[in-house]
Amino acid sequence: MKSGVIKPIDSFFIGIYAFVYFILFTGAVLAQNIPVKTPDIISDFKEIPQIKWEFKTSAPIFSSPVENENLVYSGGLDSLLYAIDLQTGKEVWRFRTNGEIRSNVCIDNDKLYLNGGDGNLYAINKKSGKLLWTFQTKGERKYDFADYFNSTPVLKNRNLYFGSGDGNIYAVNCDSGTYVWSFKAGNIVHSTPAIDNGKIFFGSFDGYVYALNLSDGKLIWKFKTVGHRYFPLGEVQGSPAVFNNMVFIGARDYNLYALDQTKGFCRWNKAFQKGWALCNNIHDSVLYTGTADERALIAANPETGREIWKIEMEFLVFGNNAYSKDILYLGTTNGKLHAFSKTSGKKLWSFETESYQKKRLNYFKPDDSYRDDIYSIIKSNEQFLDVECELGGIFSTPYISDYVIIFSSTNGTLYCLKR
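Below the sequence we write its predicted structure tokens.
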């Protein structure tokens, strides 16, 4: 028999041997009571989790926590990136930038990469917090008070891709921090880019969604949003999600757009009546959309936009979902973390921050509807954000494992919950 060729009779005996091995291995596992788990499927938190630890900072946190090798990384408006021990909640190290940190870290091997909110991209040793290199953009700026997030760097083919307040999206070599290419949009780029099929997709506050060639940054197409009475530019504040040759992205013109990746035309869009739908993500071939003033959470068919279910939310959503086997988890900006059934949208439980518990009646009735005198208390949109911070609003995306759920809050606290 030639090398690499298996005759039918050999295949038969190999199958028998594999079957016998499976039976013996399974029996051994059962005899030792060793749990057998499918990789990447996280067990559901079916009941309200309890606090394992809290990590307090001095300023609001909008970015999302990232866990890697028993350390949790989180940055906030105090200009500090913290590395926190997952088991104890104690600080291991901190790294200071010169700006408000409004993006998440990107981790690769022994390095992490941080958009510092000061116009700099930093490479940092993830264990020690030592600075490895810095890449300087042409500067960072904020569009307005509701420009909550900065662009998180995305790693692909040893390059980091991120947007900047200077209106550019950059490609930077992750090993050396050297410039690879940049593309100039018409305004601030704070959406976190998505990469698929050799293209990079992102939105800008100029009202366009862009598709570039990943290798050289050349424009492939750009799509103009419709605009809205209150937001005529149709600023693209949401970050894109990609699936099956489509790009899903929300803008300030109250629209969610599903764009063709190849040609850039709109396959379908969904217009909302009351506000933005900036939070869009794909999980198990379902498109989940969280909205702000519309106060809705929607599960939809990504090919058509047809709703599978839609539920009312008690408050605004600006972070994406975390997922376990049958449950999704997300926060609202009044200081609550919620768990919902992925199949039906039924709410299973809510965890309330202590800020919400202590201060809710300053603004809400016992049923969580606004007090009748609310507009004599809150007199501007900027003040509304202050109230959300006071309540411990959750703008971040939770981190979840089999053992813990971690989320950040605008009351300056990082929460770690356990079963």
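The two ends are 57 Å apart (CA to CA).
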